[in-house]
Amino acid sequence: MPAGLVSVTNLRGTPREGWRRITVAEAMVPWSRVVRVEANADLLTALLVMAEAGVTQVPVMSPGGAEAPPVGILSRDDVTQYLRVRRELGV
User: Fold this and answer.
1) What distances in angstroms separate CA 61 from CA 3, 55, 71, one per listed residue?
2) Using CB atoms within 10 A as the burial measure, which of 19, 46, 52, 85 is most buried?
3) Are strands 57-61 and 70-75 parallel, antiparallel or unpaired?
4) Which residue ranges does the record assign to the CBS domain (predicted)?
5) Which helix (H) or strand (E) holds 58?
6) For 45-70, what is each residue's pLDDT tens digit?
7) What is the per-residue pLDDT for 46?
8) One domain, residues 28 and 54
9) Alpha-carbon span 12 to 23, nearest angstrom
10) How far apart are CA 68 and CA 45, in angstroms?
């Protein structure tokens, strides 16, 4: 089975009543079309990538190109919380 990623964003076009009939494989975006960032990208770049793609989270990839393995997931909320904590601590 091909790899991919599914999120609430993918389900927006599907009425809630249809969620029981749609499989994860049908709802997911194929990995080749998943928007992602490399681990060495700065936070502003990651936020811009998410905004441009209209997504709220992206897989974080090891540096090394499209075939590099994912090392995590970054969400817009994670970045916002990180920046808020830094501001509160005066860092």
Assistant:
1) 15, 16, 6
2) 46
3) antiparallel
4) 28-89
5) strand 57-61
6) 999 999 999 999 999 999 876 677 88
7) 96
8) no
9) 15
10) 19
